[in-house]
Amino acid sequence: MLKIHSRCDLACRHCYVYEMADQNWRNQPRRMSEAIADKVALRIGEHAMTHDLTEVDVILHGGEPLLAGPEFIAYLVRAIRRQMDTGSRVNVSVQTNGMRLDDEFLKLFEKLGIRVGISFDGYAEAHDRHRLFRDGRGSHDQVAEAIQRLSAGRYHSLFGGLLCTIDVRNDPLRVYEALLAFDPPSVDFLLPHGNWSTLPPFRDAESTTTPYADWLIPIFDRWYGRAETEIRLFTEILRLLSGHGSRSESIGLSPALLAVVETDGSIEQSDILKSAYHGAAATSLHVLRDPFDAALRLPSLVARQIGVEALSPTCRACDVVAVCGGGLYAHRYDDESGFRNPSVYCADLYALIRHIHRVFAEDLIRMRGHR
Length: 371
Hints:
Elements: E1 2-3, H1 16-19, H2 34-50, E2 55-61, H3 70-83, E3 89-96, H4 103-112, E4 114-119, H5 124-127, H6 140-151, E5 159-165, H7 172-180, E6 186-190, H8 211-223, E7 230-231, H9 232-241, E8 260-261, E9 267-268, H10 299-302, H11 313-316, H12 321-324, H13 346-369
Parallel strand pairs: 1-2, 2-3, 3-4, 4-5, 5-6, 6-7
Antiparallel strand pairs: 8-9
């Protein structure tokens, strides 16, 4: 993940970059320089050759990455591809709020084969609870126009999907229908970032209620068995229940696969860790000095590679641990005990996984009965 611009043109209330514990964005250059871009490209090519990788995924991120401008994005992507061995593929995607997604960007993304994900929280009232301009105006209409521009006609093949952060005050099926209206190839429903020391909205440390599972289950029941879109959280749970590995850091026991490069060239861990405490994602590494292999030797990253051994005793004793995997690493944090805790969403994840398991098992029984 390359943080190519450290600022944003929205002021979303639930943003972990600007609104939570780590405020290092204030110290970052606004945009990654061409010199850092060249070194990032070299490091990516070096890493791919060292490990004989035939594919590398590069995510352009921020802040708001489109603030970096089309010229810089083209420069960076071409630099990375020049550093790769012949036959090695670089899959590039960009995660944007959509505010600057005009025809110039779309033509460039079409030329370079860059897939586009857009953050969008559903119908107008739902989206505008959090995704606001600095003067308090909602951004729904502008973002909806951007999604329509991407999803209709010649650019639909670039459409990577929609990312929706859950607010349990919003009607789940209305949110889902609002997302489906744009024919997205995939949808990510994200739990609001929080932990045991900074509780997410509508979570009580002592409560066994499951507001987020209760919100997601009606969508799962509406979605299951239809081919409307991929919902990544549900797909990954079903994969895990079927005995496959997870492809997501939010669920399952697969090792962490993500390195982040900040605009100044610092190599960091997953930026979601910034929601835990100031400096949680930081390392001493920098692309001007260090290869990406150096990150693999960091104790903090090693802890995210060892699966069940890194989990709390509560998690290891749980009957859904192979599926849940303790939940997202950042959501386990507590000021006193660190990350060796269940997810702050433990009750929600348990209820959701048990519901999906029950529906899936009943479906398997029916299929076997029809043989």
